[in-house]
Amino acid sequence: MIDLITPRVEINLVKLAHNAEKLFNFYASKKVGIMGVTKVICGQPEIAKVLVNKGIRILADSKLINLKKMRDAGIKAEFVLLRTPALSEIDLVIKYADISMNTEIAVIKSLSETATKNKTLHKIILMIEMGDLREGIRPLDLDGYVQETLKLPGIKIVGIGANFSCFGGVKPTEEKMRSLSSLAIQVEKKFALPLIYVSGGNSANYNWFKTAAEIGSINNLRLGESIFLGRETLGGKRIPELFTDVFTFISEVIESKIKSSVPDGELGRNAFGISPKWQDRGQIRRAILGVGIQDVLVGGLTPKLDIEILGSSSDHTILDAKKVDLKVGDEVAFNLDYGALLSVMTSPYVTKKHIHTNPD
């Protein structure tokens, strides 16, 4: 008898705590601090509390609504807006973020005006373009940005940072880390400006950190995927001693029948403008789940059973059950990659269930 609603994502908070503690200690071994990136879990306070309890007391998110959610829940942390603010949201940035990451003087000036009006001090990290071509100030422009920002009241530069692997796929190599360290040293010396944070990247930095004899000035990383999925992001490999199944997606079989493996009739495009290709496997057991692309990034799911995902529409996912005798009402569990996790945690159609049991 099914006593839990599907679809749902089960979140094992014990495994999460284990991952957070292991990574905190691993990076602390070379005096590198962690910002826990909460955007993939939509700032869920239950999860944020686990991170804080394991020593990760700086939480970063790209959504102000998530920062507000965590603040309102009484999470005791320093909150970082993980991107440069939009001019239309400056008031909310000052209200909900202790620190924001910035790349535009116009935005920094607006932050200064609002912070001054509210008689507060807003801290910023200047993000540097190091080749990945997402956000960032060009290195040759950095001195000018620092000089201009130091004139502004209500604003304090507390660090510089760079992003890797998220957009262009550029790796955080030893050479890149040396360059960022050099920029930090340059800023500190030229402007007599101590930098609290030299934020060298994200979960993609695991291999660099593991093998680097010297880490230079890098003293901070922004981690999400490695905490939540137990993997480094460059090769998708499991980090030793970490759990990769903190999150499990579960859906329910709503139809199970023996049918042909190929459609019958003249073929055109499907609902998403794609002309599918089909492999003739003869008659197979086709099981249908009551979820689709509107609920989860189906391509990021890996079944825990020996079955295969054939495809999906907006609200149905079709499986080849192979030798598994799936029946109507059976639950099917999946591991998730980062994209699938982001989609299920964001989806209002997927129930979130917290698990407090010890790992097997």
Supply database-style keywords.
TIM Barrel, eight-stranded parallel sheet, alpha/beta, 16 strands, eight-stranded mixed sheet, 10 helices, elongated, 360 residues, 2 domains
CATH architecture of the largest domain: Alpha-Beta Barrel
Count of DSSP helices? 10
CATH topology of the largest domain: TIM Barrel
The CATH class of the largest domain is identified as Alpha Beta
Note down, in words, how this protein is organized.
The chain is built from ten helices and 16 strands. By secondary structure, the chain is α/β, with parallel strands linked by helices. It has two domains: 199 residues, TIM Barrel, CATH 3.20.20.10; 109 residues, no CATH class. The strands form two sheets. Strands 1, 10, 11, 12, 13, 14, 15 and 16 form an eight-stranded mixed β-sheet that branches. An eight-stranded parallel β-sheet has the order 8-7-6-5-4-3-2-9. Strand 7, helix 7 and strand 8 form a beta-alpha-beta unit. Helix 1 crosses helix 2 and helix 4 crosses helix 5. The chain is elongated. The chain starts with 7 loop residues before the first strand and ends in a 5-residue tail after the last strand.
